[in-house]
Amino acid sequence: MHFSVNNHAPVTALLAGKVVAITGATSGIGRGIALEMARHGAKIAVNYYDKDPLQVQNLETLRAEIEEIKSGDSKSFTAVPGDISIPETGRALVRECVAFFGRLDVFVSNAGICPFYDFLEIPEEVVYRTLNTNFTGAYFAIQAAARQMKEQGDGGSIIGISSISALVGGGEQTHYTPTKAGILSLMQSCAVALGKYGIRCNALLPGTIKTAINEDDLKGEKGDKMAAGVPLGRLGVPEDLAGPAVFLASDLSRYVTGAQLLVDGGLYVNLQ
Prior knowledge:
Layout: E1 2-3, E2 11-12, E3 19-22, H1 28-39, E4 43-48, H2 53-69, E5 77-81, H3 87-101, E6 106-109, H4 124-152, E7 156-161, H5 177-194, E8 199-206, H6 221-228, H7 239-249, E9 260-263, H8 267-271
Parallel strand pairs: 3-4, 3-6, 4-5, 6-7, 7-8, 8-9
Antiparallel strand pairs: 1-2
Helix pairs in contact: 1-2, 1-7, 3-4, 4-5
């Protein structure tokens, strides 16, 4: 099966017939992954935080883009509201995805926050909010996805969006880097725990990726300096994560589990 979407060259649909659920997919990395997986034939369910007007607005543009990719088919996309830091939200995403599409083949745990704070000054509520959003909520969402895949009995793919920050320190990220190390470790342990069900679990580790959240921070001299440390000569964009995510979701990676894939333009090896 081959098709062409927008200005993209014809590609093989690696995810034809697959149902994918993604947390935090209205912007940034999650959005880029959702769009690319849709181009590869997947049906998409996303989670979004309905109390954030920007996320609600972004959801509608995402819906429109996916429907365009799907030639107007509104039955290839659904969205489930909720705060991913609350365990029930992840369970609801899986439940509603299955109710809408009938199954779940791929789960991408992407939602996360990273407010920068000095370690000695960070408020307690920020620590708990970061832990609950980036790790605890992700843990229970992944558990719900795994339970559904086990029940289906034909395997599946779980992708945890970790970070290069799982491997290096960050002076104003002491609350953030442990959560990303936790996602990496969780994928490794889940690979062991779920392998007997044919469920593969892998982690993607983005480097510095330009998104709407950090766009202003990376403008000018700071962004140029950071890009200079990347062997490929530029900072990443959300679309750079999309191809690796499609690979890990597809049968091309059918014997890949417990792996960590750095998508950083070579930044990590240049830090050594």
